[in-house]
Design goal:
Number of helices: 3
Strand content: 25-35%
Oligomer: single chain
Radius of gyration: 18 Å
Largest sheet: 8 strands, antiparallel
Low-confidence stretches: 141-145
Length: 151
């Protein structure tokens, strides 16, 4: 999926169709050269929740070279993810370089982020996390068809 601008565009621009919890998306994926793209924008959810997204994608290597994901409720920054290395923090070694900044001292309070990767799209994971932790949104199974009766 990260191997071409076209394939990643399909994911990015169909997010509201795939995830009904996303009320609005301003994500824009733009080329920055032959093999590099930049994704920037935000996704809005109910309850004044927003996810701001910034990614730099190397399509030739099929990897994210940088990302920043920040979740807000209104103007309040709830948490964010970034891949800035913290080699002196052994608690983050299990998911290096991925980590999540969380309250109370959000700038310095970091926890491992096992759901993130540099070689797959992170957006589905981030949306699902928002649904499960901030929206309590659960996908309902499709409604069963009514039984067919002989008549």
């Amino acid at each position: 999926m990260l191997s071409s601008l076209v394939s990643y565009s399909r994911l990015v621009y169909t997010i509201p169709d795939q995830f009904p919890s996303v009320r609005r998306s301003t994500l824009v994926l733009k080329p920055m050269g032959v093999a590099v793209g930049e994704l920037e924008g935000r996704m809005d959810f109910e309850n004044d929740i927003a996810l701001r997204v910034y990614e730099v994608i190397n399509f030739a290597a099929a990897t994210l070279t940088y990302y920043s994901y920040t979740v807000y409720r209104g103007d309040e920054k709830l948490y964010w993810y970034d891949p800035q290395p913290h080699p002196d923090d052994s608690t983050l070694a299990s998911t290096h370089p991925h980590h999540k900044h969380v309250p109370s001292d959000i700038e310095h309070n970091r926890i491992p982020a096992p759901g993130l990767t540099l070689d797959q799209p992170n957006l589905p994971f981030l949306i699902q996390e928002i649904e499960e932790t901030l929206l309590r949104f659960t996908k309902q199974p499709p409604a069963a068809s009514p039984p067919v009766t002989a008549g």
